[in-house]
Amino acid sequence: MSFTGGKLKLKGGEPLKGSVDKKRKKKKSTTVAVVDTDEPPPQQQDDFETLEGEALQQEHEHVDRRTVAERKYDEIQAKRAAEKTKKMALKSHRERVAEFNAHLASLSEHHDIPKVGPG
Length: 119
Prior knowledge:
Elements: H1 42-60, H2 68-90, H3 93-106
């Protein structure tokens, strides 16, 4: 039995509607000439300076577009998160488990799972 390469084809010869042939990536063969200088070429240096300048400029252009209420909400959320982490840091895991077990023990019996089935 002989096999040919390529994708499978359905009998009938017509391609399926809606099918798209994928584009294949072409391998690029580039050769890089080695230059024995420590400095980058002048154009690359200019590009680096402009990119660095744009990055600094973008940092300064950041404008807070939130409303007063949104800023206040975020401040309160951050404050609550800080309080919660402080509270969690005060108790060890063992203390938290003991507190949780005490809470479960204090619940009334109607929270217990009833027996299922005969018996």
